[in-house]
Structures are given as C-alpha cells and as structure tokens.
C-alpha cells in the first residue's frame, strides 16, 4: 500500500545532527571513564563525525558547544568541516560551568551574573554568524534545590528578559531553540521544566523561537509523542535532542531503552509533516557514551533513528485512518503495529547501497581501522570531555 | 513580622467550594462500599454541605455535577441552598458515562457523538443561567487506550471546535474552567493531559477560559506549585481541584499525602496574589471518600486547606526576599520552613471563635448528632453515587 | 546459529492461560461499557476461551475467579472445558468485593472478617480439588488509604497467619501463587506491595508457595526482568499475570505498551530455563478489555506473548555470552537487538501451519463467524462482568 | 498522654552519624562548585564534624569513606576523633572510581577485577579493626547500561561470592550493611536495586549482614516506611542513609523535600522499637551539599532528624491503636497527624538546654566564628571532594 520509492527517498534525504560533545569523554557524577583515542580539540571531533557520516550517509551536520568548542578561527573550523563533507549545526550555549553560575545564569538573583550569562548567549550568536549555523540551542541549568531558595515568578521575569534580548539579536534565517528539562542539576524547581513553559516563552517571543524536545527530559509516564504532535500542530517544534532512558537523564543511545516509543514519536513526526526539510525540525542526538565506544555508539544511534523513521514511513496511513474513523480499536492498533513489527534492516541496507555505501555501517566502520588509528595517533594533549 | 490581623482577615474571608459528589458513594473499579445515611438526591447533598459550612464557616459554595445533580427546577435548588447559607458553584459537565462515549465525547471520531456531547455542554451553560453559577468546569475523559487508535492532532482539532462553540455561548460573568489530567480512564493518550495543552487552548479561546489545576493529576515528580506560579503569572489560573495522592488519581483528602506540597502550593498562591477574591481563583475540593465517613472527611479537608493557607500567610515575605536576593540558600529555606513548622491550629481556633464558631469543627460536627440523624432518616430510595 | 527446530518445538509446546474474567465486561471506576455477546455464565466463558485456543493452539488453560465463576457442579464445569479441549487453570480468590472487606480481608483488624476471608480461601482449595486445578492464586486488595489507619507490622502478622493456614490445607501437587501489587485499590499502604514482601512470605511458607509477577504492578522505572531473573534464580517464580501499561494498572493487552520490555522479560525466562514445563512457571494473562472486542483482544494478546517468546528463543546465546565475557557493550547489546528486530511473524505462521492451524489467528477467528453468533444468541440474562 | 520525660530521654540519647564526604565538595555531573574553607584531609573533616556535634550534642559519630579518607595511621585518626568527643563510624567502601571498574567491581565479568574489588573490601575490614568501627557499609555502583550487556543472574552469582568472602572475614561485633539503589550510575540494571535483593543476600549470609535504607534510592511512589517496617519485623534493618529528594538521587538535606515522609519513617522506627540502641539501627546522613554551606547544612539536617523523631515520639500510641482496632479511619489518621502538626522546636530547645547546649544550634554555630576561621586558615593544599 505504501509507496516504497517515496519511503526510500525520505530515508535518503534524512539528516541527523550529531553533537560534538558525544565524541569526547563523559560520565556520571561518580566517575568519568576516559577512553583511548578520544579527540583533543574541536577539529578532531569533526574528524570523528566525518567517519560517522562516511558510513551512514545521513549525518552531515555537527552541533557545537561553546565554550567546549571555542576556537580562534571559526571560519577555519567551518572549512575543516566542509572539507570532510560536513557542516556546522546548532550552536549550544553553556551557562552552567562557571563558578558564577552556582545559583543560576540568566535567572540568577544577581544582575551582574545575568549580564555575564546574556553576554555569553550573544557571543554564541556571533559564532553562528561566523560558522553559518542557523540554530542557537539554549538549555539552562537554572533552578533551585530547596523550597524558598528563590522566587519562582521572579526568575521567570528574568528569563523572559534575557530571552527577549537574545531574540532581538538573531539575524535572518537564525532561530532560537529552547530546550526544557524536568530536573537535574536543579532538584526542586527548574526554570524551564516542561514543554508548556518553553512554549509560553516561545509564543511570546515570536516565530524564530521554537521548542526542542529532548526525549530523556520528562517525568515518568509522560507521553512524549503527544507533545511532539502538539508542538507540530502549533508550528513550534524546532527539533529533537534524541537519547533514551530507563530512569532519569540516562543519556543512553536513542532507541536503546524503548524503541517502540521512538517509533511512535517518528510516527507523529511523519504523519504531521515534520520530516519535510522546510518545516525545520532538527533531528539531533544528545547522548553520553559513558562505557561504550563513542564512534560506534553514534553510528548505532544514527541507525536506530533511521530504523524508527523507516517503520514510521511504512505505516499504511489510509488503512489507519479508515480504522480510526470506524472506531475499530484493534484494527487501528494492528495497522500501526504491522509497520513496527516489520524488519526494516534489509530496506535500509538497500537505501545505503543506492547511496553508494556499504549495507552495514557498523561493519563498514570497523573495516576502516579508524578506531585503531586514533588510539595510536591521539597521544599527549588533553582529551576532550564535558568540560573541555 | 507578619501582620496577624491581616492573616486573620484573609483566613476569615477564604471560601472553599465542596463538590456535591463527595457527599455520595464512591469507590474504585474493584468495589464501591456504600455508607449508611448517604444523600439520595441533590437536596440532601446540600443539606450535608450546610453542615460542613456550619462548623467551618468557610465552605459556603457547592459545586454541581450534571447529570448527577439534574433536577426539574434549578431555581428551587438554588433557593434550597440559599436557605442554608449556601450558594451553587461550578457546574461540572459529564460526558463520560453514556455508552456513546466509549471512544470519547467532543473528540470522538463520529460527529454525531460530538454533537451530543456539545449539546450537553451547552445545557450546562443553560443550567448556570438558572442557578446563577459563574463557572463551567470541563473535564474530558477523552483519549485513547492503544497506539494508533485515533489521530492525536485530529482529536485536538475536534476539541478546539467544541471548546470554541461553548466559549461563544458563555454569558457575561461566566467562565470556562478547563481541567487537565495525565491519564485515567484513558491509558495511552489523554486529549488534555497537561497544563501546556489546557493553557494553549485557553489562550486561543480568550479571557473567559482558564485552567484548573487538579492536584492529583500529574506525572510523578511534577512540581505542581511551579505550574500554579506559571498560570498565575500568565493570568490563566482559574482554580483548583484539591485532593491528594501517593500514586495516581487516589482522590484522598487534600493535605493527607503531602501536607508540605499543599503548603508550597498555597505559598505560591499567596505570594502571587491568588488569594484575593478578584483574581477569581476557585478553591474547590474534588475528592472521593471511599472508606472514611464522608461529611467528617470533608470537614477535615476544609481544615487542611485552612491550615496550609494559614502557614502560607505566615511566611515572612520581606525576610524571604532578602535571603533570596543575597543567595543565602539555607536562610531562605529556613524562612519558609519556619512558617511551615508553626502549629497554626491555635490561630485557626481563634479565627473560628471570632466568627462565632466552635474552635474545633470536628468536635462541633460530632456534637450536632447529624451523622446519627441521617442514618436514621435516609432509608429507602437510592443512595447518591458517582452515577446517581 | 540458533537451532530452529528447537525454537519451533518450544513455540509449539508453549501454554498460555487465559482468565475467565477477561471474556466478560470490565471498565474503570468511571464507567463499564457493556459489549454485545458477552458471556452470561462460566460455561459461556469457556466457550469463548475455546475459540481462542482453536485459532492459536497454545491457550488450552482457563483460570477461574471465585465467586465470579461459582457453579453448583465443578466437575460438570471441568467436563465442559475438557469437551472443548480446555482444562481449568488457577483458581483466583476474591476477598475484596464484600462490604465486610472495606478495611481489608485477611489483614482486617476484626478477627471475624479475617475468619470469613480465610474460609473463602480454603473454599477455593476445595474447588481446586473438584476441578483438578493445581494453582491457588492469591491477590489481596488489603491495605490502607491514610497514614496511621492501621498498623503495618500488625497487618503482616495477620497476613502470615492466614497464608500459613491456607498453605497447610494445600494437597499434593497444589501450589499457592502469591501476587504483589504496588497500589490500588489501597492508596497508602498495600500489604503485599512488592516482590520482596511476597518473596519473604513464600520463603517462610515453603516450596509450595511461589511469587506471581503481574507485569502491570510496579512503580515507574522498575526493572521487571531483573525481578523475574531474581525469582527464577531463587526458585520462587510461580508465574506471570501478563498485561501492559503506560501509567498505573492499565490492564491493556500484553505487549501493547512496551513490546521491548516483554521481550526482555521473556529473554530472562528463556535464558534461565523458565520455559521448561517442569519449572512450573505459569504464563497467564490478566487483562481488561474495556473498549476493544474481547475475544480478538485475547487472541492478539496470545500472539504477542508468542512473538516475544519467539524473539527470545532466537537470541544467539553463545554469541551473547562471548560479547559479555569480553565486556563488548555494543556487541552484546547488538546480539540481543538482532533477535528483537527480527520479524518473527513468518516463523510463527509456519509453526501454526505445522500444528494444522491457519497462519493468521485473527483472520481465522473472524472467519468463524463466532462474533456474530454470540451477539445473536446471547440475549437475555445478565452479562458477566467483574462482579458477575 | 505521652510520657514527656521518656520523650526527652530518647531525644537526648539519639545518635546521628554524619558522613565525612558531606564536609567536602560535591556536585552533579555538570559541575562541582568549590566552597572556601572546605577540608583538605580527613583530620580537617573531623574538625568540622566536631563543630556539628558541639552545637547539636547528638552527632558524635563520623562515617569514613575509603580511599577518600585513607591515612597512614588510623589509630592517630581515631585519637584525633576522640580528642574532639567523636568516634569513627561506618567504613564505606568505594569500588567505583578506578578505571578498572567501568563495567563493575565484584560483579565484573573479569575475575581479576573482581579480585581487586574484593581485596579493597577486605582492606576496609582491616581499617575497621584499626579504627574500632563496627560497620562495613557496602554500596556497589555495579550494573549495566544496556539490555544484553551482561548476564543478570551471572552477576548475582559473582556478587554472592564476594559478599560471602567478606562476611567470613568479619570479626566479632562487626557487621556488613548492604545498601540498595534503584539506579545511577547504572542505567539499565543495578545489581542491588531494591530491598528484596539486599534482603535475599543478607538472609543467606547470616545475622551479621543487614540492609541499609537510603531514603533517596527508590522508584517514584515507593512507600519507604513500609520497607522500614518490614525490615524491622524481619530483624534486618541495619540503618539509614538519610537524605531527601524530589526526583532521583538528589541527595538534598534530609527532611527538606518531604518532611511528612521522614516523620512516617521515624514513626515506624519508634513503633517497632528501632530507636533502642541495642537494635543497632544506625541513623546516618548521606547527603551532598552542592550549593549550600556545608557545616550549617549538616547542622540543619541533624535538627530535621531530631524534629521528625520528636514528633514520632509524641504519637499517642494507645489512642492510635484504639482507633485502628475499631476501624475509625479518620480518628486513627487524626491521632498521627496531631503529633505531626505539633511544633516540636520548643521541646527540642529544652532538651538542648538540659544537655547544656544553646537552644538554637544554627545560631550557636554562627556565633562560633568557625565558618570565617576555616576560610581564613584553609588556604593552599587540595580541597576534599568526592574524589579526594
């Protein structure tokens, strides 16, 4: 029933953005386990990202994190990317790792700290101008740990003020993507804890402000695909930070914890037109590979997104709509599950071969010898990590 | 530091709305345990509500539920209330107990069912005209149980259409209060599952549409007082459905499961001006007394709201603001906890005596003999319950 | 790598037990939606169960619920089952629907109520003697709604006393299966809330007492397959009550909410030998079909268990163990996911054809015309429901 | 009704154990905010702990963490403690911060890593011999991040083997306290995730093995006081790691997030005899003070435990039991709430004055000038933190 060539075309043109920080070391508060061969600077991160794109064909964009990816010459960094068939994606701000930010950044009670944080956000837009990035991704660790610690609505006022100042600074073709997160590192209130808060701010700011859905940042039991559908309906879905979790902000590989949920999310994306390039929905990974090899983990994650997308594209929408219209609960569910239960790996292998790639990206990566090469080459210097 | 006479004035003028259905039988899906003396019609429910008001002095409003409280002559019902010092409060619609509503009401795929549901909502506004009620409270059991069962955004379109039709019908001084609920009775999607969805609809509808926060209807870990503060900041908090819970929609007595949370909620209400009559925030109970005696449980619940309010009023706001401004985490928390740790029962006993009431409402109710009287009198007929 | 004939043999010999109550009406506390053609007595429930077995070939056992399935002549009921190729399975006790049980059954503060509850449990063993059932399944709604309501350890003492009395009454070849449940209908404490409590009681009772894992009865985030593995390791897994859920005790079709979780559970069962008939692990459904057609929902559920089992049987255990031994996180995960991502529907169609059945049970059931026949025939009388 | 002198005696003799690591820096995976004046070695941690004991009178015991508190001469460390009126408490093992432990410690697939971990545990017992500590507290970060990563039951076998080896090494009067934790840093399985698992191991090991309840380490909705009551009933409650949380392992000050829960826990402790010194229940703090001043936070935490204990001691047990016996739900709840709603701060001020202490420990600490002194004195060297 489904038009297979359209499915293949959609899969071929999908673009998945990988985050520079996922190539570096990460860990939990208990321990960061260093891995041999990890990049030592933003250039080496791009080298690794190029490997992921080379074997998957759908990961040409790399998100930056400032200051972790600060360089003297952003044009040179962009050229380094372009030489490897990559482009620089969203610029992610970081207003949580200076000592000044202990009690917040743009929501801090002290105006001097707020000013410093705002300056950093504006600097990020400068960097976007230099790199040609379209998206500014904002996540704020701001919040409080104890009841009474600060004024909930006062902090919202400060947040609104900072967002407004940044919004005014955005150029043509630039967007602000506002991420929400239930908790961590704040444990009582978080200043942008849910999609409602992010949506309310973005609505007031205007069309260049949109919401980012990080699939790991919700309360237990939250129906994430519902939120995705709502934001698409309102024209406010800016993109995803993909990862997966069993408990809290586990940051595991996307699709690892609940592949059916990922499929349901992609089903809402596909059904509501979110896969079309012009809607601007960014499909970004935001993961930490604490114990698994980093590049292969990212290859696997890209594949997991592809598989969920392929299944979502296979849903027989007319049959689904017909069953829904007649209230046939079991049949409607069966139509959806039929797509989910399909093994799409052969289909994706074919898509890759059509793109001139090896059918199995994991094997293709292993065959390159890159893993061994970086272990041998990248000695000395300081490994990149969350703070580097 | 706090102005005690202002505190007492606020406590004296507080109005807590009790729900007619809490006087009748209720239960879980496993069993409804009937209690002797339970009302058999709306008039007897008002008689019981009058007892609650008589001993607490702050519960003069009674919410109705249609069709459970359908009567031939609403003017007569309003007069029955007035004779007892009561007034009729929010009219609660019910579009979930007819067989037609198996797959939804205003979001149902079948337009005939949607029309029937809408007609009921419009009838509720007619009843408001007759009773003089100001508020239409809308809760929809609409949703789906299985992925694929129906179209998420299609259902939102149908919802928006129905809400708009009802909104148009509202008269001067009438409001629509839209309640959200995470889940139950729907188990996959709920059409109004969170405050963001309710807010988005109310914003589009206009100033007469506001959000109701039912304290039991959130995912685990949700910071409810944050939502309360957000809605007050946006001018969209219509009121509360108070109850408490340890797990899901337990519908226990407000303040029974987490009295500190109730205090934090009331702190946000007080701090953000929500206690003032003119803001229109309605303080309603929405509880089920499955195993405990109904009238005393409601008296206790009213007292629990009063105690949380009293503690919130005792917060030393200038001291709190000073500690917040200087980033003194422990001191700010201590200022808040100092109010919470205060035993406000003597203060409330004094407030009651100033109002000419007995200091202990529970003892006062016991002394009336009403409990024994209704057991003796209310024999025959059919007891009121969730379906009656 | 996997021995396909062994896989097929395992799938052919699997036995899934369906619950008599799932053929009758059910609902939430808000509404029970009646369906046409629903059975009116235990005999008609068996007739429906026979349809499920006829098209799946692996559902020959039907669990009873007393008093809902009380009949004058249990031998006649067993014969009715045998005539249809069925046998009677676990006897489920019910000590939660009498008015006496408002505050508990075997844990009730009043010894007279405890005695009544114990007598019912002993009657259930009498019925087992009459039906030839091997398993007594015990679930207690016992618990409290409010802190302080009753004494936590006192209730454990009463529970232990009742369980001991029932254990003593068990005959040769009879078992007691103790189910745990986090909450509902009790909202503060539940007397058997978790596997630890059930395990502690069963350990003390002896080898005939084992734990039942209801897949819907856990706190958010609980790793159910871990519990399954632990209980198998301790020799204390008596069986499953299968269903699925997104939130609380949704009682949806098994595999509908999280098919990957069901696969992980079956993987632990297979890996730890739990599929072997002699371990005695019972694979029971315990579901409510509130809005979907009941018999097809049960057919689908049986198929979902089969598919998860098939995938679990396809896991390449030697390859998995090798990757685990060397600490290859991604490869070990990949081995498991390879089995999960396989489309096992063709394999199962083949298994069915080998058994002389149609490859598609859903289509086969539709073709029987049974759905139409029961609607036409079962008029008059009272439909079976949770209370009937 | 309650015997106030007995209450005071119990409060006077209470002993709360503070953890050495709570005096040092800590943070989240995003950032550790350093504080001026933080200790630079175990001796300075004891100096700070002495300040806490000096103003509260009930915190004479300090738990150690090895290797964070490794010194050349443990007798000298014990003498340093004794000079300050302190004694050394539980020795906490650490088998999660070496690179070898990336995939686990005693459950690691590699026997060499397991051996190394076991050697560390045995070294901890050696240290107990040297310090005179009675308790070995074991927490294992062991677990897996991805389904399939390792064998669940195989890991249990390895765990059992290591625990058994340590148990054999324990001397007279020494105990092993086994802590469980739902998740973090492992995100799929944790090898000791719940009380059931810890209990099963301790039961098999023998009477010297007991379970530690960390109040922050449970799934949402878990009734912790129920677990406490169960473990006391089984004689297996070794002690508490107190802290509080709104979401996951927040490690906030005990009583800060849900003071009513802390009261309910202490009510079960008091009611079931757990406050008596001879039961051996250890009342330990295990907190991180990421943004608040460390010593005052610990003083406040000790006070919070005292206040919850005082309220629990005030519960009118005969009145409670009478209401429970007659099934008076509201009255039983009211008896409990009456104690909770009491302001016990004056009572505790009196207890302190009877002990020769200032009535307000927070003010007393401020008056010492210790905070300013350590900021001035502790310059140079490396601050203590989670890794130091």
UniProtKB/TrEMBL annotation, chains A, B, C, D:
GO terms for molecular function: L-rhamnose isomerase activity; metal ion binding. The keyword Transcription regulation does not apply. The keyword Transit peptide does not apply. Pfam families: AP_endonuc_2. Coiled coil: none annotated. Keywords: Isomerase, Manganese, Metal-binding. One of its GO terms (biological process) is L-lyxose metabolic process. Residues 72-248 form the Xylose isomerase-like TIM barrel domain. This is L-rhamnose isomerase / sugar isomerase. It comes from Actinacidiphila rubida.
